[in-house]
Request: fold
Amino acid sequence: MAGGRPVDLRPATDDDLPAIRAILAAHGNDGPILFGDIVGPYIRHLIAFGRSRVAVEDGEIVGFGAAIDAGRAVHLADLFVRPDRLGMGIGRPLLAEVFGDAERRTTFASDDPRAMPIYIRAGMRPLWASLYIEGPAQLLPEPPPSISFRPMDADALNEQERQWTGHDRAADWAHWTTQAAADNFAVLDSDAIVAIGTARLRQASPVRALSRLVVHPDPGVDPVPPTLAALRRAGGDGPVLAAVQGPSPVVRLLLEAGLRISDRDQFMASEQDLIDPARLIPNSGML
Reply:
C-alpha cells in the first residue's frame, strides 16, 4: 500500500520504456534527443541485464528502480517515483526489491534531501562528492611523450578490466562501447596499458562525456597522467564532461586549468573501500 492505495511491484519490460522515460524526464534525467539517444539504450540495458522493477498503481507506472551487479558491489542505477506520488511510501519497497539480498551496495545520490535517508536506511553511507566537471578539453595539458592511445573493442576492454579487478563486465562494456559516437581506447605509458576508457556524445548537449575510465590498480602507476590524457582525448576539439570523484588528485588540476563543476552527486556505499576514487571515473548509472 502507498498512501492507502495498492501498489504492485513487478519486473520492468521494454514495453514500459515510455512510462519510465516520462518519470525520468519529470525529474530532469531525460529530455530531447539532439545528438544521440543515451537514455533509451541505457534503460533497455538495465531491463535486460540488471534487476529492474516498476511500481504500478491503478494500472499506471508510478515508479522505477534498477540495480546492476558491478562486480565490486550491486549498484543502484536508478530510483525514481513520479513527482505527484513522492512521499507516498513507494520508494523504500522499490529500493528493497531491486537490491534484494545484496550486502555490498553503492549508488550516486542526488541532492534531493528525501533520497539520502532512504539510502542510509538501506545500509549505505555518504562517502564523498562525485563532481561533474566540464569545460574545453583544449585547456588540459598535452600528454607527456610517453603517453599514447590504442583503440580497443568491448571484449578487449572487458578482459583488461577483468585482469585488473577480477570483475567480468562483458555485457556492460558491450553497452558502453556502442553508445552514440563511442570512442573506446586504452591509454599506454611507454607501451604498457595504464588505463582503459570510453567516451561518447551526450543526448542533448554538444559536450562529449568521458563515460568511464579505469586506471591500473598498481600503486606504482600514477593515475594523474592517464586520467588527464583520457579527458583531453574524450573532448577532442570541444568540451568534455566527466564524473570525477571528489578525493581524486585531478580535481584541483582540472579546476586550475579552467574547467568547472557543473553538478554533483554524493557517492554512497556500504563499505569504505569498494572503489578507489583516484583510479575510477565511473559511469554514474552503472559504476
About this structure: The CA atoms of residues 130 and 177 lie 23 Å apart. The mean pLDDT is 96.
